[in-house]
Structure formats: C-alpha cells, structure tokens
Amino acid sequence: MTDFLHLAAPGVRQLKPYQPGKPIEELERELGISNIIKLASNENPLGPSPLALTAARAGLEDVWLYPDGNGFVLKDRLAAKLGVAMEQLILGNGSSDVLEFAVRAFVTPQDEVLFSEHAFAVYPILTQAAGAKAVVVPARDWGHDLTAMRAAVTERTRLIFVANPNNPTGTWLPAAELEAFIAGLPDHVMVLVDEAYFEYASDPALGARDYPDAVAWVGRYPNLVVARTFSKCYGLAGLRVGYGVCHPQVADLLNRVRPPFNVNSLGLAAAAAALDDVEHLQQTLELNAAGMRQLVAGFASLDLRHISSIGNFVSVDTGRLAAPLYDALLKEGVIVRPVANYGMPNHLRVTVGLPEENDRFIAALGKVLGR
Ligand SMILES: *Cc1c(COP(=O)(O)O)cnc(C)c1O
Predict the structure, then answer these.
(1) Measured from the CB, is residue 196 less than 6 Å from ligand 1?
(2) Are 142 and 158 in a shared domain?
(3) Is 294 a domain residue?
(4) Would the CB of 288 count as within 6 Å of ligand 1?
(5) Each residue of 45-78: pLDDT tens digit?
(6) Bridge partner residues of 242 (DSSP)
(7) Predicted local confidence at residue 10, as pLDDT
(8) Residue 102 φ then ψ, to 5°
C-alpha cells in the first residue's frame, strides 16, 4: 500500500489537527444524556441578530447561483462602517481564512513566523502547514511579551501574529504598547493583529482601559493586517464570515491566494444585515459583561483564580490537572474547553453563557471539585 504519510508535505506530516469544542450532539451520542450546555467555542448565547436570520432566509431562494465572489455589498457596508476603502478589505470564510491567506501570500519554508506562547492554536497549524519555522515567544503573565517578541525578530521573520485579546487567555495589549511594537518592526515583517473579539473587548463595561482599534492604524503601517470576524459577537459562527483590513496592495496579494467564492451567499447577506442591528449588539455586550461578573464571582466563591479577560470567555486555574475535571463536567452535561494543548494543563476555558448556564457551570464545577 502507498505510504501516504511519506507523500505528505513535510510540514503536514507532524501536524495535529485543530481540536474544536465538543459538539452537543456528540456528547448526547456518547453519554446518552440530554439537557447539555456548551460553553466551549465562544459562541454568542443570544444567537444571531433577527435581521441576519431574515437576510439569510431570503438568500436561500438564490443558493443555486454562485455568490458575489467580490462580496461587494458586505465590503461596501464594512468600508463605510470602518472608514476604509473597499480596496483595503479582504473577505474570508471565517477570519481563519484571512489568517491562512496571510501565511500563503507571505510565508515560504525559509521564513519564520512569530507568535506568543499560549496564543491561538491556528497560528502554529498554519505555520507548520506552510513548512515554515514557528518561533514561539514565552508569555509574560499569560499575555504577549512584546519586548521579547521584538527581540526574537530576525532577518527571516516574515509574519507576526498578535491576538488582541488572545484566546484562550483573554489577555490584551494596550494601545500605546502595541502601536510602538508595530512601528518598531523592520520593513520585511508583516504583522497580523487578530481582533476576533474586538466588539467585546472595546466594551468599557469589561473594564479594558486603552484597548486599541488597530484598524485606525492601517493607514499608517502598510505591513499591518487586522483580522475580524462575524463568528463571535455577531453570532454567525456557522455561516463562516470574517474579514481583513490592510493596505490595498496587501489586500490585492491576499486576494490572489483566496479561493474563488470562498464566502457563501447566505453568509454575505447575513453579515451585512447583522451590521445594522445595533440593538442586538448592545444586548450581546450587556449579557456578556453581566455573565463575566457572574463567572468571576463564581470562581471567587470556589476559591479559584482566573485570568482577567476582555473577551466572551475566561480561563480558570483549577489548581490541579484540568483534564479529569473536564471529563467529569461532561458527565454533568457541561461542555467547556480543556486548554492543555495551549500549555495550560491546569486551566479550563469557559465561554460566557446565559445567566442560567453560567450558574449551572459554576455549580457543576464546584461539584466536580468536591466543594
Ligand atoms: C474564533 C477566533 C478566530 C476566528 O474564527 P472564525 O470563525 O474563523 O472567524 C480567530 N482568532 C481567534 C483568536 C479566535 O478565537
């Protein structure tokens, strides 16, 4: 038989696939239980805006047609909202797509890609798949250590991923520090600021002082790409829509490696409509801020430490190996996210849910901890 492992590209041979949160149906099948809650993938517990749903339903009639490959309507709306030109936008099948375009367009096997310890798991996967060298810079207080990251830049560094805030730690970089880092990079280095949680993170109720809007810097730094998504705050994770904002010439390069029709027509329609629903966004932010307070209070009541987060998720230190606790929580019908693969074996990451879900999680966590 052919040895397919031998045929695979060198980077792909050692690759471990991304581990998503466990789907509810899978746990139902495995344990035969119902009434399961999933707080594992940073989805919006309110679901999408009704305006987005209406637009997607209307779009169903036309699914026999290819989508607009250039995504004109959504780009037009985004450009107006963000104050950029349409030529500065690239649309992705989720923002993961945009991250991949950046690697495909700029990184060769001779190059280095830099990111922080505990950073989003997609960065090492994309780097390794490209056959490039991943340079992982030790974190400081769970967050990015920009001084150490700057010191790790070499002649071969071609791309730096900065997650702001980072997933799964929820840590963030203040405006002045991050902008100074970007301004100080040599010309041969591209930097991708991943703002998947931008809307949550810029909510003053979460207490983030000085959280930056990196899109405002794109005109100043042509080597900067900012990635955002409709998967998190906008509640459209299943439709897969994200975007990048950058210099028009960079957008043109990213566009060259973009597969045709990468964003489907329902996603395009729903995302454009979602931008109109200010009220849904406000409700989402209020629910998240209240839920975060609820979880943090719950951790304190269990005598557990957590990492301060400005996303819609928070990582809690269980004080012991978290894998058995994760399994025990599954038996309670509560799905959270183990993060040992992020170098955080004692932590669990939990997504902020509805008030009753947060309560149930804290109660179940207390139970499996024996408190
Ligand atoms: C969820 C997430 C993304 C992207 O998700 P998409 O669904 O592909 O848009 C990107 N970066 C981080 C840090 C995330 O947590």
Answers:
(1) yes
(2) yes
(3) yes
(4) no
(5) 999 999 999 999 999 999 999 999 999 999 999 9
(6) 92, 229
(7) 86
(8) -60, -40
Is 83 a member of any domain? yes
Q: Best substitution site from 232, 309, 315 to test ligand 1's pocket, by max atoms within 8 Å of Cβ? A: 232
CA 159/CA 152 separation, integer angstroms: 12
138 token code pair: 């030790």
DSSP string, 162-209: EESS-TTT-----HHHHHHHHHTS-TT-EEEEE-TTHHHHT-GGGT-T
- 290 in the same domain as 263: no
Grouping H, G, I as helix, E, B as strand and the rest as coil, residue 34 is coil
Interval 129-154: pLDDT, tens: 999 999 999 999 999 999 999 999 99
Q: Tally the residues of the chain.
A: 371
Mutation test residue for ligand 1: of 95, 99, 310, the one with most atoms within 8 Å of CB: 95
As given in the structure block, the two tokens for residue 35 are: 């009434």
Q: Give the model confidence (pLDDT) of 271-299 as tens digits.
A: 999 999 999 999 999 999 999 999 999 99
In ligand 1, the atom with minimum distance to the C-alpha of 96 is 8
Q: How many domains does the chain have?
A: 2
Q: By alpha-carbon position, which residue is closest to atom 10 of ligand 1?
A: 196
Question: CB neighbours of 284 closer than 8 A, spacing ≥ 6?
Answer: 44, 46, 199, 233, 235
Domain range holding 283?
A: 12-41+279-369
Angle between helices 95-106 and 248-257 (to 10 degrees): 90
Give distance in angstroms: CA of 370 to centre of ligand 1.
34
Calculate the dihedral angle through the C-alpha atoms of 227, 233, 234, 238, rounding to the nearest 10 degrees. 80
Q: Name the residue with tokens 């045929």.
A: 7
Write down which residue in 276, 307, 334 finishes a domain: 276
Residue nearest to atom 2 of ligand 1 (CA): 196
Place 14 in a pLDDT band, splitting at 50, 70 and 90: confident
Pocket lining: 120 vs ligand 1, CB cutoff 6 Å: yes
For residues 108 and 227, membership in a common domain is answered with yes
Residues 245 and 313 placed together within one structural domain of the fold:
no
